[in-house]
Amino acid sequence: MTRDPADLTASDYLDGAREMASANRPFLAHLLTEEAARRTADPATAAGIRASFPAPTTAREETD
């Protein structure tokens, strides 16, 4: 089912963030969390949302 992104709620974005975190996709989880926080009116709640999925590091570790 195709949904209009304008109809999505902060809760929808958080659900997606949890799914991406479970799938080991931390950067996508972070992006979805940022959008959820942006759609939240209360600054304290938005800060809590951002803290739940912090930005992943951009440094890559090479393994042999």
UniProtKB/TrEMBL annotation:
Organism in which the protein naturally occurs: Streptomyces yokosukanensis
Region feature (Disordered): 39-64
Protein name: Uncharacterized protein
